[in-house]
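quick one before i forget lol
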Amino acid sequence: MGKEPSALRLLLGYVAPYWRRLVPVLLLSLTGTLLSLFIPYLSKLLVDSAFLGGDMGALVRIVGAFVAITLVTFALNVLSGMRYTRVSADVLFDMRRELYVHLQNLSPRFYSETSLGEIVSRINSDISEIQRVASETALAPIGNVLFLIGTVVMLAWLDARLFAVSLIMVPPSLWALIHYRRRLEVSVGQLRRNSADIGTFLIETIQGMKLVVASNAQGREVERFRRKNDTFVESLMSMRLLTYLSGGFPGLILSGGTAIVFLYGGARVIAGTITLGTFVAFMAYQMRLLSPVQGLMGLWANFATAKVSLGRVHEILDVEPEVSERPDPVALPVVHGSVTFEGVSFTFGRGGRVLEDVSFQVGPGEILAVAGASGSGKSTIADLLARHFDPDAGRISLDGVDLKDISLKDLRRQIVTVNQEPFVFHASIAENILYARPEASPNDVAEAARAAGLDDFLSGLPQGLDTTVGERGLAMSAGERQRIAIARALLADPAILVLDEATAALDPATQAEVIRGYEAAMRNRTTILISHRLELVERADRVVVIEGSHVVQEGTPQELREVRGAFLEL
């Protein structure tokens, strides 16, 4: 219950910028609703004036009015509905975009703790459900409420006693609506979770299909899929039943009130206390009264599902980014490349510290190797430099300026990391290299590819740089993907290059070729080599060795080879 007001404020915040476009839509809808209120009253005139009064002229005029009102109402409803659908699509895109931008600001910790299926389900399925409800039914409450009020006024004006009788079944109908609506919200939430579970299962098993097949686990995975789908279907059936009960059962109760009105009103017509035309008009309004009431009850069920989806979207929007930019960040038009770690400590919150009181300095143009065993915290240094995380204690500076004071755009333009498992898009090799600097020329791309050691590989491809690499680069070897990532980093032309085990998947010959190209391209640039491979570490000017989250050795490769310690053990 605590999230409902904030979720409502969130939705209103997206709607507010479009109020000027919504006003004419609302006016069109209200005009159509007001016109439709006259149609039942025409039945009174038709019976009393035309039929019982024997007036042919009145018959023609009344039928003409009925046709005209019907056509105008239809046109107004179509026009308002189409205009609103467009506005609602824009509103919901703003929400989807805001969620996507927010996801870009969240740290790797969020993605390690949240399944991809859950994220995709919320940005796609949940917002699609909100959009469906918004586009199909958001205007309906206004029209239904107005029509309901107008109908109630007309019923009370036609015959107050008959109207009082028609209200007998309203209280039990409202009770049924509230009762089933609460159960429906719980059911919809469970359905969304089960749907996300299926999405997570499919994403994981498709990504690991080679392992599934190699382990002869196809049958087991199909059975897991069936169990997850059965759970989803059960929750779907439960949600659908509650949707019918919350939307239809209260209306069914109200229909009992209609039967009572038929009996009481018919008796009064026979007794001559009301005219036949009045009774016919009353019943016409009574029958139309059921439509907005049942519509509102159905809408309540729809809004219950939308509320659950909105709450799920809001859960992600409520996650605070771990890294944020200051209101007035420092711009760095020129970067010399000096990096300093001063007493830096960091933990992922899963036990002990990953880094503790780590201090070292890298001078402009210097090549520093960071060596250490797996899990010693080497890769965390790369994440801290790119500000995917901020240190729990200590300070990291670039040219003497705290990273927290530098604009994120400037920082990530000047510090580029090549990871051990780089991401490659389903696009051409050239497009993947251009991703870091899309305005670069074809000659720049070709030079970056050459410097990364891609020439031999490209010469064997019929389309060269225009060859599509396949989904996540799976059509290529790990070494080829790494060289594309290195070329991408070289094209970005950063002041500081961080290679985080970037040659781990390369054979010695390819590694030597890549390193030669990298050394030529990155001469006079600060480089941090995070590696456990001696061939790469020995090319550094200095080496920092991390063990047990601390810096335990520091010096040139030659100095560290001459003393016993962690470096020799590595």
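fyi The CA atoms of residues 109 and 297 lie 42 Å apart.
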